[in-house]
Amino acid sequence: MMHTPAGSSTERYARTSRMFLATMALALFVGCGFFRPTPTPIRTVRAQQVPGAHTLIVFLPGRGGDPEDFQQQGFEQIVAEAGIHADTIAVDAHLGYYRNRTVVTRLQEDVIRPARAAGYDRIVLVGISMGGLGAVLYAKQQPQDIAAVVLIAPFLGDKPVLEEIERAGGLRSWIPLEPLPEGDYQRELWQWLKGYTNPQATRPPLYLGFGTEDRFAQSHRLLAAALPSTQVFPAPGQHTWEPWREVFRQILMAGATTPPK
Fold this sequence. Notes:
Number of helices: 10
Order of helices and strands: HEEHHEHHEHEHHEHEH
Radius of gyration: 18 Å
CATH topology: Rossmann fold
CATH superfamily: Alpha/Beta hydrolase fold, catalytic domain
Largest sheet: 7 strands, mixed
CATH class: Alpha Beta
Helix content: 40-55%
Shape: globular
Number of domains: 1
CATH architecture: 3-Layer(aba) Sandwich
Strand content: 5-15%
Oligomer: single chain
């Protein structure tokens, strides 16, 4: 039996993967106090319905957030003021669904498929912070379901892999180890996002908005450099609702929810 040296690339990647999972768990779960139940079907809040709408905007909240936050923070009003002919639904995709790895399944079975059956032909995922991670996970696994992905201040990983991508000169030139070690979800995520650097790759259009002083801005800048400038929307601010409302407004005006002409 061949033993892998402790300092080998594979072992280092495996250690980094374990560190990432532990770091993500801390980043996402610390401060919550307890894990909320994960009922089936997942709870949703329909805040806006427009007669004859064929587009559905699906909101995914951040860590510790609730689906009601989007209405309270004016996101449905922003949709209406922008003249977007779309319905909206907010999903209680809280930490528990990430912890038990059912967030994609519940979104598909409880939200996306029923929406398709109800006649919606365009579904746009809008994820904030942890919800941005959920939107990427869904688009990665079920890209055919999604017309566009809107990431607002998304959580996309921890420093080791971000610094690795930076040292490589950015996402375009970064070459992940192949095959990736089993369970290296972080690099799998970025490997999929790397597809946006290839104009021929089939991906749902991705729009990115963030506060320039956001605590996750390192990952936002890395992703922004791989996207067309017309799909990147920075705004002054930190990891708070004020810049999130502003970038969401700009993303809507850029046509994220409307069919291509």
